[in-house]
Design a protein that fits this description.
single chain, about 325 residues, mainly alpha, elongated
């Protein structure tokens, strides 16, 4: 029986960061699922983004099966596909539900408008007395100031409650990130102690069978899909100048997952052959992190735009 490979600092860091990446990927979609449920809407997230991501996960699964990768990798790829399908199904459900509600509300509004026009015609015919319009105008103007004061009070209350709400959200996200790191590190420690995880010698896979060309093509295709999936979301955010309905934690976990994934590869080895073999995945992770950074900038610039517009509109109401 060969001697066990000694655990070096590099191998330990590679194992820990890889395990943290795995924990981030497992819980990645949960924040957005919760956000959609709380909002009762999925209008904030781009379905094109999710569809391309699903294609990436499907090609990743097909490539893993074709290449005969370890069962844990295949199981994780299956989990990703199922999680994507659940999120897409939830989005389609809320979009369909809200569309039907809007159609019913629009039809009801049109019926009310027609009835209102009929009643206005009757009043104009029967109550067209001298000075009647002047009294109506005076009555309306009499209500303007109290309504404006009420809107101003609401705006002040919003400003008072806005900061604690932000602080709670930041605290919740911070705790979630700390837990992801803790779960990942603890998972690696347990796997190492039980022998489920062992250090891998650099270049240890070189003597095995080469990866089938088709599996490699599917792997590259999945990387391209992951890299391009966020572009529709970025465009949507920029076009609407809003990130309302998106979960910030969703993209934070994505950033953590990609950063620790790349770190796990580099901690294992920076030898030329190993580095070049993993270069496409490193580029994909780096590119995705850049796109996530763009979305973070959009959160900072547009995230609360709708709330600000709501306050502005309320203060200007008659």
């Amino acid at each position: 029986m060969p001697d066990p490979i000694p655990l070096t600092w590099n191998e330990a860091l590679s194992g820990v960061t890889g395990s943290i990446s795995l924990a981030a990927w497992i819980f990645l979609l949960v924040p957005q699922l919760v956000e959609n449920y709380q909002q009762g809407s999925a209008e904030g997230i781009s379905l094109t983004f999710l569809a391309i991501w699903l294609v990436g996960d499907i090609t990743n699964l097909a490539g893993a099966v074709w290449a005969g990768l370890v069962p844990t990798v295949i199981a994780l790829a299956v989990y990703f596909c199922i999680a994507d399908a659940i999120l897409i199904g939830q989005c389609l459900y809320y979009n369909s539900l809200n569309r039907r509600r809007e159609e019913k509300a629009e039809a009801k509004s049109m019926r009310a408008t027609k009835r209102g026009n009929s009643m206005t015609d009757i009043r104009d015919d029967n109550l067209g007395l001298p000075g009647s319009r002047r009294r109506t105008s005076s009555g309306t103007s009499g209500h303007r100031h109290p309504h404006g004061d009420r809107a101003a009070s609401v705006a002040t209350l919003d400003r008072i409650t806005e900061e604690p709400s932000r602080s709670r959200a930041a605290l919740k996200n911070t705790i979630s990130v700390v837990l992801i790191f803790a779960v990942g590190a603890a998972g690696w420690a347990i796997a190492w102690k039980t022998g489920a995880w062992r250090p891998t010698p650099v270049g240890g896979e070189d003597g095995g069978e080469p990866t089938p060309l088709g599996a490699s093509i599917l792997g590259y295709a999945s990387a391209v899909c992951y890299l391009g999936a966020r572009i529709p979301q970025i465009v949507k955010n920029q076009r609407e100048r809003s990130c309302d309905g998106l979960s910030l934690l969703f993209f934070v976990l994505s950033l953590i997952g990609n950063a620790t994934y790349g770190a796990g590869i580099l901690f294992h080895s920076v030898q030329r052959d190993y580095f070049l073999t993993n270069l496409p995945w490193l580029i994909g992770s780096l590119g995705t992190m850049v796109e996530d950074a763009i979305i973070f900038v959009q959160f900072s610039a547009f995230g609360e735009k709708e709330e600000k517009e709501g306050v502005a509109d309320g203060s200007a109401v008659e």
